[in-house]
Amino acid sequence: MATTTTSKPLSSADTSAPPAAAESFDFSLDAAAEMTTLPLSGDQLRYCSDALECFKSKQISSQQTICHEFQTLQANRMRASDIRSRCTVAFDNLNYSKNRYTDVVPFDDNRVILKQCTDYRSSAKGYINASLVTTSESVSRFIATQGPLSHTSEDFWEMILQYRCPVIVMLTRLVDNYHTVKCADYFQAEDGPREFGNICIATKWIQTADNSLILRCLEVKHKESEEPPLSVLHVQYPEWPDHGVPNDTLVVRRIFKRISAVPLSLGPIVVHCSAGIGRTGTYCAIHNTIQRVLIGDVTALDLVNTVMTFRSQRIGMVQTLEQYLFCYDAIVDELENLISYSNSS
């Protein structure tokens, strides 16, 4: 993969609990440039081959079945009254303005809770529009969240530090083609450190690839803290259109390859677009399914159930039929790639 690299030194079940382990992970520029694909074991090759046959058979002979699966998801969408009763903190008067979209809010039972909230009024309850999303402890955990607002960027970085999140996957532009702001600029610090309230971020290196991925290694810390900064890999894919899908699956699969090697013992992977459900849910479903296939979890073959599980943890994950079909495309393409790579090795 050809890359243009810019690297310059710069100046300087309790949902609120951080992960128990805090290992380190190599986010050096050389490590980021390497692909993480490894030859499959015999068992993994069999798991992938069986899964590929299952997913591809639906693609080729029964696309109507896939469409029916999505119709089932839509038919089982949560009612507005149920959303209200399950999202009471999000709709509190003190928190309402922290939601980019008032119809996309986290459930009370799995929302991220900030310990050191910038809003010290007790009724705010450490609120951020972010949800803990997972299917099991055997695969990556995610925080699915909205694109930060200008007045929630400090909260966003507080969440990153509290949960020791090693990776942020950003699947949106800051401003779309219609000049609509989709996300606040919470991460660009190429000209020196930036401060968000009590938090400082600095850019260690930047790598721009010809497949439209922009990688940044960011260092994050509390300004007054003597602890070393937290290194965070920021993966930005600005070309994924809102409510749509990319032209092909290659870049999304490259993101998976780059971050699937991050140890599960580190904090959850943060994924966001603008609302934090469409593109975000699509990526999470792809990443989660491939990981589960590789460990022999046969329930991974039931994509509709995976998305239903995600929707029980955050409203509307995987928004459109086009995005649901794209999940199948990306999973099939990646399984074929893994099998081919393994056989050639």
From TrEMBL:
EC main group: hydrolase
A single cellular component GO annotation: cytoplasm
One MF annotation (Gene Ontology) recorded for this entry: protein tyrosine phosphatase activity
SUPFAM superfamilies tied to this protein: (Phosphotyrosine protein) phosphatases II
Key words of the record: Cytoplasm, Hydrolase, Phosphoprotein, Protein phosphatase
Chain ranges of the Tyrosine specific protein phosphatases domain: 253-325
Subcellular localization, as worded in the UniProt entry: Cytoplasm
Residues in Tyrosine-protein phosphatase domain copies: 66-334
PANTHER family per UniProt: RECEPTOR-TYPE TYROSINE-PROTEIN PHOSPHATASE (PTHR19134), TYROSINE-PROTEIN PHOSPHATASE 1 (PTHR19134:SF449)
Protein name stated in the entry: protein-tyrosine-phosphatase
Organism encoding this protein: Buddleja alternifolia
